[in-house]
Structure to design on (515 residues):
């Protein structure tokens, strides 16, 4: 069960200290060869808080992190939390305009980066960036300083800014307060049924909410979090066995990938009883449990919100996300925010009863904050249906965003890259159905008069200017795009048409993206 904390204590430094006093030499974090006890975590936070202070970082300053799943990520993240600075985790696949926007919008003064991602930063115009210094991970990475005093923090103070893809514009920096991660840990632990002393294993990236949430689950329950470098279908089961994990985390597309592999002796050799796996198509649940002996837990949450909708395993219903949890409110509404009858689709809007259980807005984008939180409800942009007995079913997304392999992709950002090519007159980017239960990116492109552009040349242009996962898999050169009388592209017609005989498929063509 999770530890209970008074409202004023729902800040990361206090959580760390309280749990270190309880669990001391028990392991909290395992990342590669590094094994942290609960006491080690406090020392790392205070020591790297001191190193950040020595570097001129103060409370409220933003520190960008372009780092894979390694201990330096958590050293910096907790160091920021200790002194009241704000961590800005960046998807390591970010490139070009998206990366420039994140660094500039956040106003990050310090960048912590792995050498393999440094070229992406160097490709930007340094004069445009707010960065004052860089910590390069490796032999010259700073050592922890003399432990700093923890900052006087409030639950609503920002712990991290996480950038989630824009839907009709630039990526938005979600301001996640300390108390939001406390509540993530509480609600997720309760739904999973975590007990003290369990071992949690994640292969998901620390720059996303899911893995950070897992850290707070472990912290609040006196458990251990094992952070693997990345997801590998061939190594996944061996990792569970090696670390004696009892709980793990999967995204929708991972489940069919694992099921597609040949059966092995390790399919049931592990001790993991449950995986938090939102967005898995219902037809995979029974097959996955039969083969691997592990239950899949559904639910609904987002970077801006929390684990708002979900049920314990015994109450799960295939094809639904679950019911709204105590501490939250949820309605399904029409375009004017009027509640629609049960059984009728509409937009899901949400509200938390506990202060700072949700994000506090979008950094530097007041207009987007007001739009998303209009009428004092967070508008998810997701179309859902609520059944008569309170269960919610996901229908589709209202927003112009694409979700591929657990990544949110902004159609707008991909289109801006395509439109920067001198031979492209106009383009529309949209999702098409994937065999892996999520979306694939497709682009319909109108070339300039008389122009010719090989698809492979277009791929080379794209992969240096955007995240690899956002590079279109499908390309269709067309004479014109369907549009309304006032010129607005009718993407629903493109989605309905989907893949045609003239569509070029990157994977079928054998083109391999550089990563």
């Amino acid at each position: 069960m999770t530890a209970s904390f008074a409202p004023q204590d729902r800040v990361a430094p206090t959580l760390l200290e309280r749990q270190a006093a309880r669990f001391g030499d028990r392991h909290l974090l395992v990342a590669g060869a590094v094994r942290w006890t609960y006491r080690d975590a406090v020392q790392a936070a205070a020591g790297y808080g001191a190193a950040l202070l020595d570097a001129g970082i103060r409370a409220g300053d933003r520190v960008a992190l372009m780092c894979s799943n390694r201990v330096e990520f958590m050293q910096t993240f907790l160091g920021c939390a200790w002194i009241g600075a704000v961590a800005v985790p960046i998807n390591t696949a970010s490139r070009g305009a998206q990366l420039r926007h994140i660094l500039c919008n956040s106003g990050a003064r310090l960048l912590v980066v792995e050498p393999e991602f440094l070229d992406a930063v160097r490709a930007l115009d340094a004069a445009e960036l707010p960065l004052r210094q860089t910590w390069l991970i490796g032999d010259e990475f700073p050592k922890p300083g003399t432990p700093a005093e923890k900052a006087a923090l409030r639950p609503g103070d920002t712990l991290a800014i996480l950038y989630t893809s824009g839907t009709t514009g630039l990526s938005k920096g979600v301001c996640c307060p300390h108390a939001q991660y406390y509540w993530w840990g509480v609600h997720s632990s309760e739904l999973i049924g975590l007990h003290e002393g369990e071992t949690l294993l994640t292969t998901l990236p620390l720059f996303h909410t899911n893995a950070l949430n897992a850290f707070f689950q472990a912290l609040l329950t006196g458990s251990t979090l094992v952070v693997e470098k990345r997801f590998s279908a061939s190594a996944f089961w061996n990792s569970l066995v090696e670390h004696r994990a009892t709980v793990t985390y999967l995204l929708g597309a991972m489940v069919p990938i694992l099921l597609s592999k040949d059966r092995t002796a390790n399919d049931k050799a592990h001790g993991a009883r449950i995986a938090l796996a939102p967005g898995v198509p219902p037809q995979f649940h029974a097959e996955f449990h039969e083969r691997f002996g592990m239950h899949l837990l559904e639910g609904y949450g987002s970077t801006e919100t929390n684990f708002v909708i979900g049920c314990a395993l015994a109450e799960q219903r295939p094809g639904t996300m679950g019911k709204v949890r105590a501490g939250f409110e949820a309605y399904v509404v029409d375009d004017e925010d009027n509640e629609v009858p049960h059984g009728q689709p509409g937009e899901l809007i949400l509200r938390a009863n506990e202060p700072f259980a949700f994000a506090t807005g979008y950094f530097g984008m007041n207009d987007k904050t007001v739009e998303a939180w209009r009428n004092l409800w967070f508008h998810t942009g997701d179309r859902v249906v609520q059944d008569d007995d309170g269960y919610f079913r996901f229908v589709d997304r209202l927003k112009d965003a694409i979700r591929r392999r657990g990544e949110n992709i902004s159609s707008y950002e991909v289109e801006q890259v395509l439109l920067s090519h001198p031979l492209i007159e106009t383009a529309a980017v949209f999702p098409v159905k994937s065999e892996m239960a999520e979306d694939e990116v497709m682009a319909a492109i109108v070339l300039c008069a008389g122009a010719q552009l090989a698809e492979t040349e277009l791929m080379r242009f794209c992969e240096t200017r955007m995240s690899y996962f956002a590079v279109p898999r499908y390309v269709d050169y067309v004479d014109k795009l369907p549009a309304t009388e006032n010129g607005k592209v009718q993407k629903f017609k493109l989605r309905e048409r989907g893949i045609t005989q003239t569509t070029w498929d990157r994977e079928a063509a054998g083109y391999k993206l550089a990563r």
Notes: The chain has a mean pLDDT of 93. Residues 38-54 form the longest helix (17 residues). DSSP finds 14 helices and 23 strands in the chain.
